[in-house]
Design brief:
globular, alpha/beta, seven-stranded mixed sheet, 11 strands, 320 residues
Length: 320
Amino acid sequence: MSMTNFAYKIDAGVVSRVSLGQDGLIYLTGGTNGTLKLYSDRLFQADVDRDGWIALVAARSAFFAEQNIPWRFVLSTEKLSIYGDDELARQLDEPVTPPGQAFKSFIQDDAIVYPRDLLRAEIAQNVYVKTDSHWSPVGAFLVFQEMMRAVGLSLDWGRYAAMPDGRLTYHGDLWSADYGDVAPDVFLRRKIDPAIRTVYKNPIVGLKDARGGRVGLHVGSHLIWRNPSAEVKKNVILFGSSFSESRLECTLLSYLFALYFEEVHFIWSTSLDKSYITRTRPDYVFVEMPERFVRQVPADDLSIERFGAAEAEKWLMANP
């Protein structure tokens, strides 16, 4: 069938931010990144700067080779990429490719980690929950294991399993009153290792702590954790997103890094601060980014100290 014979459903109207699938899962389909559109082969080709990404990843690999620092670039999977085959077929009458898979097809670099195959093989373990866009604790743990394998580390996974846990019941970030019939999810919450200490937080994180998290600031959050009881006596810089986050909570990669590594620097950003990396001299750098973010090529011109201070000051001026 020729491409012109497809009835492009996605062109017929505005895509809603979220959609309730026939499987009872709520999916992120719209939003600022136009998530669903990135699964369309033709729209991905139109919207994603292939040459820009090729140049950026090559520059990053050259930089880390020069610094002699192992690095990996992890594309966090959308729920649509794992459970959403039926929903994608319902909303797109055209060839479909998950954006991370399309990205890997033109970025030929061993630094790229895209855990879709791993998570799809484990879908029976509920690697996502119904009402949230992020991994479940199981999903996060599986991805962390994949990241460790990617740098040749074999760790004692029993350390995570031995952490005491509890349960919280609530709706996740995709739920709204429009989906009143969708029951809250039960979230596992593993305890935080008491040996982990927060030894630095920047002004953005300080504001979030002081105002109970209700400040709307995320990008530019910067923390350092130390864990003298960690298995790996090395330091890591993790650049990440809401899949990593500035909290120690077991659905987030930051929690797992702080559990297993002696020192973890977390910076909420898709852009790198190369000066910070050079000054810190980490043993590893991981860059985590949701696959829907491939629409924007980062500039890698971040100065985290200046950015964090400026964003906090701007917020305080607007909210005296």
